[in-house]
Amino acid sequence: MIKIAIGFLIIIETKWNILDLGIFANRSAGCPVYPTISEDDFQYIFNHAEVKYVIVSNKEIYDKVKSIQLNVPMLLDIFSFDKIPGVRNWNEIMELRKKYG
Length: 101
Prior knowledge:
Distance between the termini: 19 Å
Strand order of the largest sheet: 2-1-3-4-5
Number of strands: 5
Mean pLDDT: 83
Structural class: alpha/beta
CATH class: Alpha Beta
Helix content: 40-55%
Order of helices and strands: EHEHEHEEH
CATH topology: Rossmann fold
Shape: globular
């Protein structure tokens, strides 16, 4: 059974592999999305996949996702690989994993 759907919009880098394996290990479903598509496409995909969390690679992509967050009722939070003031960082996920195993 799939626990949650997690969307990710990442410029190609090594962290993508770590993220994908972590999502799989958590019995969740990854929903990779091209970071270059429109906000309307993000909204449609996230609603259709019932995405609860999104992980982005940078502020530019974060801003796109943030602009549609209110139109995606299932979307609980957005995390970023880059450190962006006021945005949860992916290191928080790593710390939760250490805390809860």
